[in-house]
Specification:
The structure holds 3 protein chains of 3 kinds. By secondary structure, chain A is mainly alpha-helical. Chain A has a single domain, classed as Arp2/3 complex 21 kDa subunit ARPC3, CATH 1.10.1760.20. Chain A has 8 helices and 2 strands; from the N terminus they run ααββαααααα. A two-stranded antiparallel ribbon of chain A has the order 1-2. In chain A, a hairpin with a 2-residue loop joins strand 1 (37-41) and strand 2. The termini of chain A are far apart. Chain B has a 6-stranded mixed β-sheet with strand order 6-7-8-3-9-10, sandwiched between helices. Helices cover 38% and strands 21% of the residues of chain B. Chain B is an alpha/beta fold. The two termini of chain B are 47 Å apart. In chain B, helix 18 (474-491) links the parallel strand 17 (462-466) and strand 18 (494-498). Chain B is built from 23 helices and 20 strands. Chain C is mostly helical. Chain C has 2 domains: 2-149 and 254-272, no CATH class; 155-228, no CATH class. Chain C is 66% helix and 2% strand. Chain C has a two-stranded antiparallel sheet with strand order 1-2. In chain C, 44% of the residues are buried. Classes of the chains: A mainly alpha, B alpha/beta, C mainly alpha. Chains in contact: A-B, A-C, B-C.
């Protein structure tokens, strides 16, 4: 494999294939968000939709993951019809950058590369990403848009962040191992008796 | 073809995909002339699609690799052209009519190429209407893709590449996902488009009999990346090379061969309806169809499934329409049954009812004599296994063994029990040696076996297979079919095929249940169903060429088909034993 | 499937439906900024009435809308307000400017009329943005959305992503149902009443892996089909679904421009140059 610069891995390769992947990812995200989430608290859901940007990131890079998350959120708002929560959309987009950064630390799902080391870095990224997105970005935006108290918006966003992190780690890591296994190139398989 | 302008010229052309260790195309020398209609024939992996992708520019634009030699399209060397430039000269209709529909309505999808050219809307609208009219979709412009049938989507795809500067049209396996009748409509349409103007048409197929529904000027047969024959339809049908390269002969040709006719003496051999058989040939055919081959009646077991007056509708307010009306049928243990009907006839709905995913509004379903009403989907799953068409939709795990064990683990069986049942299933499906392989490391046919194994682990009595061979060439088709027949013969599983592949139904089932518009219109042996004009029309089926042959030599089509099948089965049996 | 989504794939026939994509998108953006910029119920009220009238004029199916409204009321109206009242009852003083206590239990638990106004006004603001959203969603089809965003300057590749996403949603929903059924037959219990939260979460993995494999398995073909028809060859792109603006569009755009001028004036002169002492206006004359 050719050495690729970090910037390139971050941006991803923007061809038609990547655009289609972002579109399919956003559609999956929207559908899972609207029809496949379990509400647990005001504005807080356990939703498997969160996994989609991780996969897009693993296959295409961090910025495509960001785009998937942002557009996916917009799509979810449009099909769900519960209004546009831009404060949350932007927070989710930022989270997408962190959780989709897999190629930056060498995890290549499409080439079957995902090790325990990658899993640990990924888990750290999930925690940091959620801290930045819902500990900082979303509460500040909510405070600006609605003149709500930072303390309260922070509490809400914090609950959302915990739920996301749980989903991303508990479902995400086994799935990443599973996909890496499926995409792995096979050369020396032996039949066993 | 002298004097005609060559539009596609391959010269000593080779192509090697970057990701593969051997070249895919070798020494291609081929010239296709303006206005020609060419059929490129070959099994999967013969390189026929790669050849097409070289012409339309996907190679090397999307699939990187090394090209040697020369390929000129309309006199221009393709390596100097971008895919965008080629896209204004070469139109391609892909096999997957659903995936290539990128617009949100019929009009939008037809307009897609024009939108990319930044054509003003005022100019775009009349052109969209014109192209839609050419394929007969002018009344559907506002329709959504989700409300269209596969055939309609394909027409839209065709309209989408009819641009004014387009003089080459490529059809990549246009018949793969269509029912038999729609397939003939498509071939008719391609024929009409080919005659319209000076378009050069290239059809890529492995289904020879269906592709020859309308004549082609030339057939190019490919194998392992080389052109092995570049000839007329007549020459090809007379030769013996088809089977050798994994292409199924048209049924009437096989029948003529079995009867001992000399094919190269038959004028108009390409068209079974109008070929000129000599009186000697007709005698031979009559003699062949007069011998009564042995037929072994299948042993009829107890009732595995029985439905009594089953009626069902997806309730949608006052417009509720019954999807299934008054269906009564039974399937006996050990039988092989084909469930036939066009899209939307209710086949899948019936399967869902039998599996308990939906429940009938009226009527009763019995499974092994028990009323299914009191059983959960899970309990029914242990009696009836349902194998979906696309293996990707079923495979959950990464390792073959884990996939097969999944259902057993969910049942919370003991580890010993899981191990022994999984081993038995893996051995039945001939996957035991590969049990620790990842699911994606195997061929399509083996993947299909994994999905069958994953449900066989529960030891169901009945296996329902939804289009098990869709999109497969003859070799892979036989691989899958032989495996399923083994399940039936050796392991006594009852098999229900949901299919619109008539070859599959004729050769591998004892009985056909035909649905049309939610009603059961036939429940009879396959050969009687296929010789009944009324049923054929209502179910969007198509007469096989045997029917045409029977009419030509004036014998009963039913007898002709029955005879042929029994002969083939006996014949194959002998071959298998050798 | 289609009727479970609020957005409509087929265009409607009322006057608002007949506006073109660019007009709808412009209107939506201006109205959204309008609602975000102000905390003054007197400014929000006319826009709320206008949007509600717009929704009524489209003769929608009310059932899903009322359902969403109810859900919003519980989430933001009841739970959201309760949180503020319980955690920070002094919000009335900080955001409205006074504290006229109605009931007081302890030092930390009390209700003032300004606090009630604050939570009420905040809920009203949520309600306003919900009604603009519903108006927009009901009025626009996905193809108009894509074309409209491109017309107001969004790069066409992003707009195509949006349109493709909507093209894919029904396919995904169908696959989702098929996969779920097949898993149920193999013994996966997906009934939410029978399994706990953690088990449900784990079982979504079973659906996710085939769903992702199936959906992403198609992207190569879709991308090829687009490249083969010249996608992304030019810097600009025209849209089949973007109707030429009619007289009604020009009138609507005129109104939108007027509102936009007001929005700019309000942001510059009221919010930035001359900010009120407290964010929320109230009838008790604090500003």
């Amino acid at each position: 494999m050719k050495e690729q610069s970090l910037g390139r891995l971050f941006l991803g390769k923007w061809n038609t294939m990547t655009l289609v992947a972002v579109a399919v990812g956003a559609a999956l995200f929207g559908t899972l968000m609207v029809f496949g989430s379990i509400p647990i608290f005001a504005n807080t859901y356990l939703t498997s939709a969160m996994i989609i940007p991780v996969i897009v990131g693993g296959l295409f890079g961090a910025v495509p993951a960001f785009a998937t998350m942002l557009i996916g959120n917009f799509v979810a708002d449009l099909i769900g019809g519960w209004g546009f929560w831009f404060d949350w959309s932007v927070g989710n987009g930022v989270l997408g950058l962190f959780i989709g950064a897999l190629p930056l630390y060498g995890a290549r799902i499409d080439e079957g590369i995902f090790t325990v080391k990658h899993a640990i870095i990924y888990a750290v990224c999930c925690v940091v990403g959620n801290a930045v997105a819902f500990g900082l970005v979303t509460p500040v935006m909510t405070a600006i848009f609605y003149a709500a108290d930072l303390e309260i918006t922070f509490l809400q966003a914090f609950a959302g962040g915990i739920a996301n992190t749980a989903v991303l780690v508990i479902i995400g890591i086994p799935l990443l191992f599973l996909f890496a296994n499926r995409y792995k190139k096979r050369s020396n398989l032996k039949e066993e008796e | 073809m002298d004097g005609k302008k060559p539009v596609i010229q391959f010269q000593d052309f080779c192509f090697h995909y970057k990701i593969q260790n051997k070249p895919t195309l070798h020494d291609i020398n081929l010239t296709i002339f303006e206005g020609e209609k060419v059929l490129i024939l070959g099994a999967s992996g013969s390189g026929k699609s790669t050849l097409a992708n070289c012409i339309n520019g996907l190679i090397p634009f999307s699939f990187a690799g090394k090209i040697t030699g020369s390929l000129k399209v309309n006199g221009l060397e393709t390596r100097d052209l971008s895919i965008f430039k080629l896209s204004t000269m070469v139109g391609t209709v892909l096999q997957d009519s659903d995936a290539q529909f990128v617009g949100l309505s019929v009009g939008e999808d037809i307009a897609f190429a024009m939108e990319n050219e930044n054509t003003p809307r005022a100019e775009m609208l009349p052109r969209v209407l014109r192209y839609a009219t050419e394929v007969g979709m002018e009344d559907f412009l506002p329709s959504l893709p989700f409300n269209l049938s596969g055939g309609q989507k394909q027409k839209v795809a065709l309209a989408g590449v009819l641009g004014d500067s387009m003089n080459i049209l490529i059809f990549d396996e246009p018949l793969a996902s269509l029912d038999p009748h729609t397939g003939t409509v498509t071939i008719d349409l391609i024929d009409k488009i080919a005659r319209n103007g000076n378009r050069t048409v290239i059809i890529i197929e492995h289904r020879l009999e269906d592709a020859l529904h309308r004549p082609v000027d030339r057939v190019i047969l490919m194998d392992k990346g080389r052109i092995v024959a570049d000839t007329t339809t007549f020459e090809l049908l007379c030769s013996d090379i088809l089977q050798k390269y994994g292409i199924r002969e048209p049924l009437y040709i096989s029948a003529l061969k079995y009867a001992g006719c000399e094919l190269d003496k038959i004028k108009g051999l390409e068209d079974p309806a109008f070929m000129e058989l000599s009186s000697g040939d007709i005698d031979k055919l009559h003699k062949f169809f007069a011998i009564k081959p042995d037929s072994q009646p299948t042993e009829i077991g107890e009732k595995a499934i029985q439905t009594e007056s089953v009626t069902f509708s997806y309730i949608r307010g006052p417009k509720a329409k019954n999807v299934l009306r008054d269906i009564s049928l039974e399937v006996r243990k050990g039988e092989r049954v084909a469930l036939i009907g066009k899209n939307g006839a209710g086949k899948s709905t019936l399967a869902r009812l039998i599996c308990g995913i939906d429940r009938p509004d009226a009527g009763v379903i019995y499974i092994s004599g028990n009323n299914q009403k009191g059983m959960s989907v899970r309990e029914i799953g242990e009696e009836i296994g349902y194998v979906m068409q696309n293996p990707n939709q079923m495979i959950v795990k990464d390792i073959i063994k884990d996939e097969v064990e999944l259902a057993l683990r969910l049942k919370r069986l003991s580890e010993d029990e899981i191990a022994s049942r999984a081993e038995k299933t893996l051995r039945t499906c001939e996957l035991y040696k590969m049990r620790n392989w990842p699911v994606d490391a195997v061929s399509y046919g083996q993947k299909k076996r994994i999905t069958v194994a994953s449900i066989l682990a529960l030891e169901p009595e009945v296996v329902i297979l939804d289009e098990p061979t869709a999109g497969q060439d003859y070799r892979h088709y036989m691989e899958i079919i032989n495996f399923i027949n083994k399940l039936n013969a050796e392991y006594k599983k009852t098999i229900i095929f949901i299919t619109h592949d008539m070859h599959l139904a004729i050769e591998n089932t004892d009985r056909a249940i035909v649905l049309a518009e939610g009603e059961l219109i036939a429940d009879n042996s396959v050969f009687s169903v296929l010789s009944d004009d009324d049923i054929i029309t209502r179910a969007n089926l198509k007469q096989t060429s045997l029917y045409t042959l029977a009419k030509l030599i004036d014998i009963s089509p039913e007898r002709c088909i029955e005879h042929y099948i029994l002969f083939e089965r006996g014949h194959k049996g002998i071959l298998d034993e050798q | 499937m289609n009727n479970r989504l609020l957005i409509n794939y087929t265009p409607g026939t009322t006057p608002i439906h007949r506006l073109n994509g660019a007009t709808k998108v412009m209107g939506f953006i201006v109205v959204t900024v309008y609602i975000i910029m102000t905390f003054d119920a007197r400014i929000m009220l006319p826009m709320f009435l206008l949007c509600t009238a717009g929704v009524i004029s489209m003769r929608p199916n009310w059932k899903p809308i009322l359902l969403i409204m109810g859900f919003m009321f519980i989430m933001a109206g009841v739970i959201g307000s309760m949180m503020i009242i319980l955690i920070r009852p002094s919000s009335g003083l900080t955001h409205v400017g006074g504290e006229t206590v109605i009931v007081r239990w302890t030092d930390h638990f009390f209700i003032s009329r300004e606090l009630l106004w604050y939570v009420g006004a905040m809920y009203f603001k949520r309600l306003c943005s919900l009604s603009t959203a519903i108006l927009f969603i009901l009025a626009i089809t996905p193809s108009e959305l894509a074309a409209g965003f491109n017309k107001i300057g969004m790069p066409y590749k992003i707009c195509t992503v949006l349109s493709l996403a909507f093209r894919t949603i029904p396919d995904i929903a169908r696959d989702y149902i098929d996969i779920k059924n097949s898993l149920m037959m193999r013994g996966v219990e997906l009934d939410s009443r029978k399994v706990g939260l953690v088990a449900r979460l784990k079982q979504t993995v079973f659906i996710l892996s085939p769903l992702i494999m199936t959906s992403f398995g198609r992207i190569g073909t879709i991308a090829n089909a687009m490249d083969l028809r010249g996608f992304s060859k030019l810097k600009r792109r025209s849209w089949y679904s973007e109707r030429e603006p009619t007289r009604a569009d020009w009138i609507a755009r005129g109104i939108i421009v007027l509102v936009a001028i007001f929005v700019i004036y309000y942001i510059v002169f009221v919010r930035v140059l001359n900010p009120p002492p407290f964010s929320y206006w109230s009838p008790w004359g604090y500003w």
